[in-house]
Automatic annotation (TrEMBL):
This is non-specific serine/threonine protein kinase. Residues 648-662 have a biased composition (Low complexity). Its EC number is 2.7.11.1. It is a single-pass type I membrane protein. Residues 648-696 are annotated as: Disordered.
């Protein structure tokens, strides 16, 4: 037979008779079935490997394994061994659970050895695409992956094998007009890269659910709460899902009729417990406990009421602060009036209202913010306050309490001695004593990035700040940066606090991202843009929108890039700084230019910003940022109306850059070639994520 080019091709062969093999399958297959002959004189270079025999062409180097993994005859030496000294050989196997693994064998006294796993392609088995079959959900029980169905609207295809997947008890086609969406918290439907082009959109949670419900082809969707706002629509069917308490995603799947969630483990255990005596004991204990709590509560309330009459100044909630540490305290408006001496000592004013210094009854010094333009009711306002107060991070200002009385809406924060960052950055040159040395500036930049990263990527729900600027970065006595005013953007929306793209959001001139000004949906990348401007100001000590003869009539941010392009890094750095770390300065400048890229997809996520500043990953030289048109507003704070439909989609096509070069190669680089959007997505979607990509 004529020789067949086999380089780079994986074949599945079967021996039809001695020295002749029939090809069953090939990675680059042809429509013609071929029969190959092998042997010492064969023109076709094949190395067959079957059962336990050694190939005639192996020259004593290749060994085969039978299904029991017993080792064949071994009388050879390997030229290279990357394993331990007692490893004889390794083999690669695609196991029946869909995972690719490498195994090693060690020598034993009888010529055989133990088989041990040394590597797996996917360490988290629940992330293996299709592990639980069609419409199956993978989760962990006692550290082992188990497969189940999304809800009681489904049933397993095979009751004895959960990996066979699930099916609807009633198909969607059989219930026209009665289709609803089942919501699954902390659940992600795995996505395979070829599916991404038609699936990836940027939506809010309600729009992600509604779009799927209205779609004639979509059956499920997943919203990733990592700050990207990505919504993945599954068409026509999902393959398998992953459910875990730490997954930052919410998924939806179509069901016929009312969605019936799976019972919790407690409910399942209760259903199996038919011991009436046991039930009576439980009821008796619960009733006795409740009665005791009522008695204690009445006595405690009487004590509090008595103390309140004596002091007359503290609210009941404030007296309880020692018993409910960390919970926000509800103050009366009169209490805060007294604490601030009639709101007489003004600390400053931002886009959300003025801030006053106050002293509480326990002598704690606080900053009281009077919110303006709040139209929410008390219940909704309290829910938003609860969200803000649940965020705890070293680099976030702590919320002490609130006031929600009549039309008054106030927030009470911890007081930070050194005030806001702008007072140190933008002082006149003759006030050098108030300037910050480089070590403090770099730590402030890094701390601010960590605080924003926590809001975007580590909270249960992504919190977009919408007003990152030096005035909202406060410094304690040790000059530790603490981000303030986070979570307030949602308080300003009287219609639907879940969609920032539907709100009249307040931003600040010089820090607004281009897509914000273009009425596109607001994502976490808007905060990244604002942070980039702040980072440039930390390095330079000048406003990013400053225009002066020194900057040749250009905005400072654009002039700074031209100096960076020429290699004049020292021209950008604040002249008041005596000693600087040139490597840290270079990293900070390049990170700032990446953050202020025009296209959101070119900007890194905040978690990657932290890694770049820390020097964990290298940074490519950034392309030139384009100027953003911000209108003719003369004030510092402006209002941008984003009346965009919640069903609108927005995903910039320009990809994020890679980060392979070191900082020492300072200079501009051409834009990186366009990549598939899928490479920027979560690894939980079955995709690989570049370790050096700022946006991954």
């Amino acid at each position: 037979m004529a020789p067949v080019p086999l380089f780079g091709t994986l074949l599945l062969l079967t021996e039809v008779f001695h020295m002749r093999l029939l090809m069953i399958w090939a990675t680059f297959s042809s429509s013609i079935t071929k029969v190959f002959q092998y042997g010492p004189r064969s023109r076709t270079r094949l190395i067959p490997w079957f059962l336990h025999r050694i190939s005639p062409l192996s020259n004593g180097i290749l060994v085969g394994l039978d299904p029991s993994f017993a080792r064949g005859m071994i009388n050879m030496a390997f030229t290279t061994d990357y394993g331990e000294s007692n490893d004889v050989f390794r083999f690669l196997r695609m196991d029946n659970d869909g995972n690719l693994r490498i195994y090693s064998s060690s020598t034993g006294n009888n010529g055989s050895g133990n088989i041990t796993q040394t590597w797996a392609a996917v360490t988290d088995q629940c992330q293996v695409y299709g592990f639980c079959g069609n419409m199956g959900i993978c989760s962990y029980k006692d550290s082992k992956p188990v497969c189940g169905c999304p809800s009681q609207n489904f049933e397993p295809v095979n009751e004895h094998d959960g990996r066979k997947g699930c099916k609807r008890k009633v198909e969607i086609e059989d219930c026209p007009g009665d289709v609803t969406m089942l919501q699954l918290e902390h659940t992600m439907f795995l996505t395979y890269p070829p599916e991404l082009s038609d699936q990836l959109v940027t939506l809010a949670i309600v729009a992600c659910r509604t779009n799927c419900l209205a779609s004639s082809t979509g059956t499920a969707s997943t919203l990733v709460a990592d700050g990207s706002g990505f919504c993945y629509l599954k068409t026509p069917d999902l393959v398998s899902g992953y459910q875990g308490a730490v997954l930052p995603s919410t998924s939806f799947i179509k069901v016929c009729g009312q969605a019936i969630p799976n019972p919790s483990p407690y409910q399942e255990a209760s259903a199996k417990d038919n011991d009436s005596l046991h039930t009576m004991v439980i009821v008796s204990v619960v009733m006795a406990s409740l009665l005791a709590l009522v008695v204690v509560g009445i006595g405690f309330w009487c004590l509090l009421y008595s103390n309140r009459n004596k002091s007359g100044r503290m609210s009941v909630q404030y007296e309880l602060v020692d018993y409910a540490s960390g919970a926000p305290v509800k103050f009366s408006y009169r209490e805060l009036q007294q604490s601030t001496k009639g709101f007489s000592e003004r600390l400053g004013e931002g886009g959300f209202g003025a801030v006053y210094k106050g002293t509480l009854a326990n002598r704690m010094v606080v900053a009281v913010k009077q919110l303006e333009g709040i139209e929410q009711g008390e219940r909704q306002f309290r829910m938003e306050v609860a969200t803000i107060s649940s965020t705890h991070h070293l680099n976030l200002v702590r919320l002490v309490g609130f006031c929600c009385e009549g039309r008054h809406r106030l927030l009470v924060y911890e007081f930070l001695k050194n005030g806001s960052l702008d007072k140190f950055l933008f002082t006149s040159k003759d006030q050098s004593g108030k300037s910050l040395k480089w070590e403090n500036r770099f730590n402030i930049a890094l701390g601010t990035a960590r605080g924003i990263t926590y809001l975007h990527e580590e909270c249960r729900d992504c919190i977009i700040h919408c007003d990152i600027k030096p005035e909202n970065i406060l410094l304690d006595e040790a000059y530790t940066a603490k981000v303030s005013d986070f979570g307030l953007a949602r308080l300003m929306n009287p219609k639907d606090h879940r969609h920032l793209s539907l709100a009249s959001i307040r931003g600040t001139r010089g820090y607004l991202a281009p897509e914000w000004l273009a009425n596109h949906p607001i994502t976490s990348k808007c905060d990244v843009y604002s942070y980039g401007m702040v980072l440039l100001e930390i390095v330079s000590g000048r406003r990013n929108f400053e225009v002066s003869p020194e900057t040749d009539g250009k905005k400072f941010s654009l002039w700074a890039y031209s100096e960076f392009e020429k290699g004049h890094i020292e021209a950008i750095v604040d002249k008041r700084i005596k000693d600087v770390d040139s490597e840290e300065v270079g990293r900070a400048i390049m990170v700032s230019f990446w953050c202020i890229q025009e296209q959101p997809s070119r900007r890194p996520m905040m978690g990657k910003v932290v890694q770049m500043l820390e020097g964990v990953i290298d940074i490519d030289s950034p392309p030139a940022p384009k100027p953003a048109v911000e209108g003719s507003s003369r004030g510092t704070t402006i209002t941008v109306n984003s009346n965009v439909s919640g069903l609108s989609t927005y995903a910039a096509s320009t990809p994020a850059p890679s980060s392979s070069s070191s900082f020492m190669n300072i200079g501009p680089s051409p834009p990186t070639p366009e990549r598939e959007m899928g490479k920027e997505s979560s690894s939980l979607l079955g995709l690989k994520r570049s370790e050096t990509d700022p946006d991954s």
